[in-house]
Amino acid sequence: MAGPTLRVLESRDAVTETAAQWVHDRAWAAANARGRFTLALSGGTTPRALYRRMAAGPRLPWDRTVFCFGDERNVPPTDPESNAGMARESLTGQPFVNQSSVYRIKGELPAEQAAAEYEQTLRSLFPGAATFPAFDLVLLGLGPDGHTASLFPHSPALAERSRWVAANWVEKFRTHRITLTFPVLNAASEVLFLVTGEDKAWALREVLRGRAAVEEIPARGIAPASGRLTFLVDRAAAAGLGQSS
To answer: pTM score, two decimals?
Structure first.
């Protein structure tokens, strides 16, 4: 990998619009080349706006799009904190989406069971994967503490190198999260970070310019082996980077 690409846009709305076009272009390219587009969704406020924009158009190859999730809270899909619930309300529950192509993490199950079942689901979706599945596009957010997906600072899943999905104990919340692991995220053809808001400025600076270990800033562990890594950020999030373009 040559290194991450940074694009600084004027506003959260501009990030949403650019990301929607980004997904649109990758979706059609993958569907036309390989017959399907595999997308790993993220949770959070910025992705919610993106999903609503995607639902509004322009049209994606909905019948050839496979929706998965990068992580989930240990809650049922009806819980307000559920990533799957948010995605369903904003995008995946729309009538033009084939529900048999939406593969959520079953956060209502015990965390270890949910992780094991989701790994089996992914193995059935990527039967030819030699080691780890290669998503066409993985969407990620960035937490103010430097976490991404549900890979939090000093959490056990940071060290996982063989499992595809982990039940990760997050001490600060005293709960488990279910998350894709670094090897899966880094096997993607493309990873797109969406980062907005001044509360992300410190974390973004640490990810792109800092030297902290991955244990301190987990998002620094995202480095696709042969894929592309792009950060779409607004001016507020980029404030700590100095001169950016």
So the answer is: 0.97
